[in-house]
């Protein structure tokens, strides 16, 4: 199971986009407080469109609360990581994989990252950009895990218009 963890997210539109991604891939979302918005924020609903009711998500009062309730493989995504996000093996579909992302303004606290430096990843980019948008980072990393798992449980064809929609 893929789990997306947002450490103190600040921007409701990013979290709404991430919610939609989680629904699209069957991932669970974990939100660590404090949040920079209300969970029923109109911007959050707009970004998540009509899919939020299909999302399985959890709220935690802090990092310790999250860690005490979740066991699995933790992977941290930070601009300070030394390994590309593609460098680890995420292929075991029987494991619980937690992809952990920090707040938009400051990322994941250094104290948390220092607990597991071997699992601190970076999405490669030029020196011209400090960081990518959080929702883009989540999508990039989630789909790398899915790619390594051969898109386990996902559809390869659009289910609503039919297989031969383009041919008609």
Which terms summarize this structure?
168 residues, alpha/beta, 5 helices, 7 strands, 28% helix
Short description:
This protein has 168 residues and is of the alpha/beta class. It has helices at residues 12-25, 42-48, 63-69, 110-113, 134-148; strands at 2-7, 28-32, 57-60, 73-77, 83-84, 97-101, 120-122. Strand 2, helix 2 and strand 3 form a beta-alpha-beta unit.
Can you give a write-up of this model?
With 168 residues, the protein is of the alpha/beta class. Helix content is 28%, strand content 18%. The chain is built from 5 helices and 7 strands; from the N terminus they run E-H-E-H-E-H-E-E-E-H-E-H. A 7-stranded parallel β-sheet has the order 3-2-1-6-4-7-5. Helix 2 links the parallel strand 2 and strand 3. Helix 1 packs parallel to helix 2 and helix 1 packs parallel to helix 5. It starts with a strand and ends in a 20-residue tail after the last helix. The model has no long low-confidence stretch (mean pLDDT 91).
Question: How is the secondary structure organized here?
Answer:
Layout (H helix, E strand, L loop, with lengths): L1 E6 L4 H14 L2 E5 L9 H7 L8 E4 L2 H7 L3 E5 L5 E2 L12 E5 L8 H4 L6 E3 L11 H15 L20
Parallel strand pairs: 1-2, 1-6, 2-3, 4-6, 4-7, 5-7
Helix pairs in contact: 1-2, 1-5
Radius of gyration: 16 Å
Question: Given the C-alpha coordinates, what overall shape results?
Answer: globular
Structural class: alpha/beta
User: Spans with pLDDT under 50 lasting ≥5 residues?
Assistant: none
Distance separating the two termini = 37 Å
What value does the average pLDDT take? 91
Major pleated sheet: 7 strands, parallel
Total number of beta strands: 7
Widest β-sheet, arrangement of strands? 3-2-1-6-4-7-5
The number of helical runs is 5
Strand content bin: 15-25%
State the order of secondary-structure elements, H for helix, E for strand.
Answer: EHEHEHEEEHEH
The helix content is 25-40%
């Amino acid at each position: 199971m893929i789990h997306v963890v947002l450490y103190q997210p600040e921007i409701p539109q990013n979290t709404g986009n991430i919610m939609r991604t989680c629904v699209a891939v069957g991932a669970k979302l974990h939100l660590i407080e404090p949040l920079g918005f209300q969970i029923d924020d109109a911007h959050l609903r707009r970004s998540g469109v009509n899919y939020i009711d299909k999302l399985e998500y959890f709220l935690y009062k802090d990092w310790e609360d999250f860690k005490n309730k979740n066991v699995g493989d933790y992977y941290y995504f930070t601009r300070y990581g030394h390994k590309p996000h593609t460098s680890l093996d995420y292929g075991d579909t029987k494991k619980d994989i937690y992809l952990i992302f920090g707040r938009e303004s400051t990322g994941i606290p250094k104290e948390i990252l220092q607990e597991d430096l071997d699992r601190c990843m970076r999405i490669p980019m030029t020196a011209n950009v400090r960081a990518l948008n959080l929702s883009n980072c989540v999508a990039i990393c989630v789909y790398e895990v899915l790619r390594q798992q051969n898109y386990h449980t996902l559809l390869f064809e659009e289910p609503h218009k039919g297989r031969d929609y383009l041919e008609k």
